[in-house]
Amino acid sequence: MAGLGDREKTGDRDKTQDDAAPAEDGFGLSRDQIEAVRAALDDEEAARGAETARALVLRLHYADQADLVQSLPAEDRRALIGALKGAFDPEILPELDDYVRDEVIETLGYQDLAQALAELDSDDALYVVAQLDEAEQAAVLERLPVATRALIEQGLSLPEYSAGRLMQRELVAVPAYWSVGETLDYLRSAPRLPEDFHEIYVVDPRHRPVGQLRLSTLLRSQRSIRLRDIMDAEMPPLSTTADQGEVARLFRDRNLMSAPVIDVSGRLVGRITVDDVLDVIEEEAEDDMLRLAGVAEVDLYRAVVDTVKARASWLGVNLITAILASLVIGLFEATLQSIVALAVLMPIVASMGGNAGTQALTVAVRSLATKELTPSNAWRIIGKEFLVGILNGVVFAVLIGAIAWIWFDRPEIGLIIAAAMVINLAVAGLSGIVIPLALERMRIDPAIASAVFLTTITDVVGFFAFLGLASLFLMP
Amino acid sequence: MAGLGDREKTGDRDKTQDDAAPAEDGFGLSRDQIEAVRAALDDEEAARGAETARALVLRLHYADQADLVQSLPAEDRRALIGALKGAFDPEILPELDDYVRDEVIETLGYQDLAQALAELDSDDALYVVAQLDEAEQAAVLERLPVATRALIEQGLSLPEYSAGRLMQRELVAVPAYWSVGETLDYLRSAPRLPEDFHEIYVVDPRHRPVGQLRLSTLLRSQRSIRLRDIMDAEMPPLSTTADQGEVARLFRDRNLMSAPVIDVSGRLVGRITVDDVLDVIEEEAEDDMLRLAGVAEVDLYRAVVDTVKARASWLGVNLITAILASLVIGLFEATLQSIVALAVLMPIVASMGGNAGTQALTVAVRSLATKELTPSNAWRIIGKEFLVGILNGVVFAVLIGAIAWIWFDRPEIGLIIAAAMVINLAVAGLSGIVIPLALERMRIDPAIASAVFLTTITDVVGFFAFLGLASLFLMP
Question: Basic and acidic residues compositional bias: what residue ranges (chains A, B) (predicted)?
């Protein structure tokens, strides 16, 4: 594997990591590093062990420290957080999974947590506080410096998953009548500017954004030019209440590097940069996948009992679906008793319908999420999926028909399973696209509810078509 | 819905779009806009219609133009590309789905395509050419300017999905011994610099990157300081052959804005910026989801026959799985004939196993992709999933046991289905985590193959446990 390779050839910048071998791809955490820390924490002489572990961890990038904290068993994790006391890097907190973060915060205590939050960027601190429950939030907030506390409380008042929760408040804004020279002088000498900024925002006298300007453009323009003559006025200002998914899609579609955020009165209150959007994009795609499978989130670190509870609700719904299918089968007890071959073959039609439907469904759910599937092309895609279902139905009808005929040496059973296959795969294709479209229309998340409806339909239709046709044509 | 709202309050910057209502969320394409273009293209007087359509389209952002081209039926699409002749925005090309792009390129012709490519950034041009088949590539390449052609051929020689395919070659590199003042003067006056850059790379005499520097840092430093004293030396240089997924993970974990790319000799050859990574991140998560469902990609715009073929292979594999399950059922024909209630109930155990297994499987596939699930915590998670399976097995065993007892008024059937449920859900939990781990170990993509193995196991075990226990205890 090439990995991120070729690192060894680029000099000796990473001497510090030499004694613990890095992961095989050259970045991130290696198993050896994790084992070294665990070994240190298991040291009989606790103080010495803690000191060694601390030294091993502190040389890592904060993202790797977070990975390490995450991969340790709960006991070792507590021991490590204890060992890091005073040197705990606040940047670790936003990187952790919710369950692990709760544990870490418990070990840290509110006082240390408040101190860590005060050191973070406004958006990261807000994110961490937002994940706490109300009592914890109150306990932390009262320990924060007044200014930080006010910013976080303001952020918490905005809707979850809104642009306001994502934005950084640190930005550079200058008036439109300034010249390039004035602006450059300001940037050079102003005492308090964000540590890192790639663009400056141009505002009108009411602090409403009227344009933005890249530093590279500013640098390469003549000093006498007015900002309003070179600024980019086409940036989309986002409202603090805009949905994060919409924001992410906009960044992706327009290839934006950053966008200003305005409050209800149109005033510039923050900026969102593309790196803030990475997590949103990944989570949106991931959430669809998890919801389709009936899990709410990646619950790797969640306790067993909580996981059982979280997954049981989905299994409960599926039990009802399965019982419904059994009720349909129950209608044909007499037929099954007289031709037991039907019982042997009947799961095939239902299972193929479920699979074909899931294919159409997954494409539909994903296309709805990315807004590729819209009211303007819905009918065309519905027609297409129906046709795809019929055609694949015919293909597999011929196959399974021949197999069933040979297996039970009864051509009529082959014909009946073939007919049922075409019916069920056509219905599956149609349901796979119509169900998510209908749910979306009713403002229900298609990723959550579609799969249940789909399997109910493909099971019921699958068993009913097969056993019904058999009763009609094979029973005296 | 708040959408990206509040736009109307922020001034009158978008007058140009006023006559065709924008989409409900304030950005992107509205249905009215699409309809207006379609109406124009259907105009009886073709020349006038083309002129109107062209005017309507050209005022849109290129991302919206791409969306529009995509949502049109094939005929209208060809008509529109014809109408845009000469004013076709090259930026549209990388935004299109593969199927649509192929059509557009066919309508454009190689000469116009070559011209469009020459106007694109190197990474975008490479991406478009890489999607063509070999004959098309040759036809386009020979029509390109020599320099562009060389760059693209060099890019094509790199592995697909590598950092080299993702990087832009346009960048700013300066020697480490320069002072801030020299650098600023160079940036201000150098005739050919990239249109947009957020950081400059500091290189040694052999053009190997030794650090990077944000423009904001440069601007705020004293002119006499040497770059080597203020540059950030901790940036990770990526190899051109590094896997894009790894690159994306690194950007996400380390919250990077950009990273330099080096060739085998360690020379700086390009840069990857975080916006290039957005698509990779989304596609990685999306691909897992699609593969689990047995579709290779979002095939919304793919022709019916191609879609049928692409999906049939997965359905074929599933047919084999289903027949395997039927063979297991076939072992118990005698039992089914004497107790038909078993035929009615048997799909329940298999179906619940499939669902519980899919929950564990989806979490595992996703965690493997994000490297949260690693050899160091695998055993712990395996134990957890097994336990979760047993516990949910017990919960649903009690439920279905009671239901079956009441339904058929035979307590022994209730007991048998309950026992089968515990067995199958425990096996499902275990398989859901072990299968993807084993596949990953064998370097087979767990997202592609896991689901088939899982349903085979949960079906076979589900039917075998239920019917086997019934034969053992209920048959004379």
Answer: 1-18
